[in-house]
Amino acid sequence: MVLLGGFAGLRFEEAAGLRREHLNLSRRSLRVVDTLKRGGSLGPPKTPTARRSVTLPHFLVAELANHLRNYPPGDNGLLFSAPEGGPISYPNWRQRSWLPAVRSTVGEPFGFHGLRHSHASILARQGVPFRTVPGRLGHQDPGVKLQVYTHLFDGADRAAADALDILGQAEGDAEGMQSKGQVLPLRPTQEGTP
Predict the structure, then answer these.
(1) pTM for this structure?
(2) How many domains, in total, are found in the chain?
(3) Angle at CA of residue 55, ends 80 and 151, nearest 5°
(4) Which residues pair with 24 in a beta bridge?
């Protein structure tokens, strides 16, 4: 479940509501169709955009295949079940599994939702375009979430400016290029191309 939060961007209730029929390991994908509701019932996600398909990294496919071999889904088809079977109770899971793991690694406070922020951070650091991130996370309003994740893309503006620094790339600075007649046109040519 933790890997699905960090590397697929799933919310706790989405991971806990994931059933075997919504996982396609050969296509490296999963579909968020149901979420685990309070009381242990399954129901649709809160918003239409939360109902989505997510492509999985190769290592996560291998981890999920291993999980399925060791912990086959029960009658309800859930990938993750409580120790006694049936849907996971978030308060019990948090106390028994999550908090001890957090205390022994990153330290408190760190909630499951923090894994989604980690997911967005990894994507940003790997140069994934921002417009891809909200879709993976199932956000309804990407503009609002842009405010939440904008700090992850702080270096993107600098990279864009560096990419535009074409006058200094070929043989020195702009003056050197001009003296050799290598000035790039900044207006369209007669044919309409720059």
Answers:
(1) 0.68
(2) 1
(3) 100
(4) 29
What CATH number has the domain bearing residue 115?
Answer: 1.10.443.10
Q: Are 95 and 88 in contact (CB under 8 A)?
A: no
Q: Is residue 188 part of a domain?
A: no
Domain range for 111 is: 2-154
For 37-80, write each residue's pLDDT tens digit: 888 888 888 888 788 888 888 988 999 999 999 999 988 889 99
Burial class (CB in 10 A: 0-12, 13-18, 19+), 154: exposed
Alpha-carbon distances, residue 33 vs 10, 15, 75, 78, 143 (angstroms): 12, 11, 18, 12, 24
Beta-carbon count within 10 A of 155 CB: 12
Residue reference for tokens 């019990």:
92
